[in-house]
Amino acid sequence: MLKCILPSMPVDFDAAVVTNTRLSSDYNVLSFAAPAIGSLAAPGQFVMVKPGRGTDPLLRRPFSIFEILRTSDGDIAGFSILNKRIGVGTRHLYDVEPGARLAVLGPLGRPFEPVSPPSEAWMVAGGVGLAPFLTLAEALSAQRARATLFYGARRDAELYYTDAFERLGVRVVIATEDGSRGSTGFITAPLADALTAAVDSTPVRIYACGPTPMMHAVSRLAATHGRTCDVSLEQTMGCGLGGCYSCVVPARTGVETPRFVRSCIDGPVFDASRIAWEALTH
User: Fold this and answer.
1) pLDDT tens digits, residue range 17-49?
2) b or e along 3-23 (b: 16 or more beta carbons within 10 Å of the residue's beta carbon)?
């Protein structure tokens, strides 16, 4: 049965924006001075951020914790988020200037469980689905676990932070839909090739985040090859605490008919085999 796992009590306060790094006309990385959140966060957890001080937008937005920020002495100073400008809230966060203070609640949700050697970790990211994997890569590096990042995007210009993963010892495999970098097509193709070529005796755990159809495809591939797969779902959330039921997903919980569970507290990380993908994608 799915369990609600909250490794730490969340912190709610106004955090100062330290930097706003615009990666492109759509993507940016915001860093926050929030050592209380950074010190509590586990890989795969998220924060709820209110984009502005007024009522438009009224609700906070969920963001995976992208990086844990540290001072030159190694002390935890805060965290960052990876933002893609899509709607009103994300446009506000793209335009916000350093020094602004935004309401932040976190860390929230069920985190990833990093593997230890001899197991390998294969992370599969599509677009902004890269966000939860940098903290996971750091945890895997600390445990000396071999890791590969399968990273897909529409084109080369939408691939970010690959050098940060490589510095952590992560092997990076890339696919772009237009063929401008790596293989041509979806990232699930090189993943399928790697799964076919992998030695059955090598324990591999797959972690996926990105568009729902991509995660569904990764889940099918993992099941076909007998590999464990965890997915981080990117559901719309209103509160992040389980009170509004805006983020429900159909999940199998030991009974024949799937029931709806709240991804903010039962997830966002789920065993992929428990998700009723056909109901989620229709």
Assistant:
1) 999 999 999 999 999 999 999 999 999 999 999
2) eeeeeeebbeeebebbebeee
